[in-house]
Amino acid sequence: MFSPLFFRTPMTAFVRVFHASPDAPPVDIYANGKILVKNLKYKYFTEYLKIPAGNYNIKVFPAGKTTNPVIDTYLSIKPETIYTVAATGMLKDIKLLPFIDPILPMEDGKTYVRFGHLSPNTPRVDITLPDGTILFDDVGFEEITDYIPVAPKTYTIQAREAGTSNIALTIPNIKLKPNRFYTIYAVGLLGKKPPLQVLIPLDGNSYIDF
Fold first, then answer.
1. Rounded to an integer, what distance in angstroms lies between the CA atom of residue 135 and that of residue 143?
2. Please, are residues 42 and 94 in contact by the beta-carbon 8 Å criterion?
3. Does the model's pTM come out above 0.90?
4. Same fold for the domain at 1-100 and the one at 105-210?
5. C-alpha–C-alpha distance, residues 54 and 63, integer Å
6. H or E stretch at 111
7. Architecture field, domain 1-100
8. Domains of the chain: which residue ranges?
9. Which fold has domain 105-210?
10. Cβ count near 124 (within 10 Å)
11. pLDDT tens track of the chain, all 210 residues?
C-alpha cells in the first residue's frame, strides 16, 4: 500500500518541512551548507525526507538567495524519529519549530488527530464541535496537542476563543479516514490577510515503518 522508501533504516530519521509564516516569501533551506529544500511556499509541506540522524546547522533564505538568512539555527535530529519542522511566526521573528510525529499504538478502526496553533495573531483557542463539545482546550500560538482517538467520519469543527463561545473559524467537511494520524494546523492571520485557515495533512506516523 505504501512505498518501500519508508522501511526502517537504522540511524536515520524522516523530516518534512512546513512553511507556516504568513508574510515570509518562498524559501530555500540548507542543512550543513547543502541545499535541502528549494522554493518552499507558504502553506506548503515537503515530502518526508529521509536523512541521517545528527546535529544540523539550518539556514533559511528567501528563494534564490544565499546571503542574509532569515533563519540560522541548529536542530538535533534523533534516529528512528519522524518530524514535522514548521517555519512559523511573522518574518521579523520567524523561527523553526520541530514537532515530533510520534509512533503510537493505534486502536483498529479509529482515527487519531491533534491540533497545532501556528497563527501568530490568533489568541488561545478551544477546538470544538458545533455543539460545543471540546476536542482541544486552551491551545496557544506555537503549541501542539497530543493526539486523541475519534471515530472516522466527516466533521465540522470550530476554533473558539478559549473559554468563550466566540467563534474565530468554522471548518466544514473534514473527512478523517480510519487508521490514520492527522494534525489540524491553524495558519494565517485572524481578521487580516492571508486569512486564518486550517491545513490537515496526513502525518508520517500513519505509514512510515520503524
1. 15
2. no
3. yes
4. yes
5. 25
6. strand 111-117
7. Sandwich (2.60)
8. 1-100, 105-210
9. Immunoglobulin-like (2.60.40)
10. 14
11. 334 444 555 699 999 999 999 999 999 999 999 999 999 999 999 999 999 999 999 999 999 999 999 999 999 999 999 999 999 999 999 999 999 999 999 999 999 999 999 999 999 999 999 999 999 999 999 999 999 999 999 999 999 999 999 999 999 999 999 999 999 999 999 999 999 999 999 999 999 987
Lookup result for grid cell 492571508: 194
State residue 91 phi and psi, 5-degree precision. Answer: -55, -35
> What's the rounded Cα separation, in Å, for the pair 170 and 129?
9
In angstroms, rounded to a whole number, what is the distance separating the alpha carbons of residues 15 and 96? 13
125-128 and 111-117 beta bridge pairing: unpaired
User: Nearest-CA neighbor of 101 among 195, 6, 196?
Assistant: 6
Strand partners, 159: 127, 169
Joined together, the cell numbers standing for residue 1 give 500500500
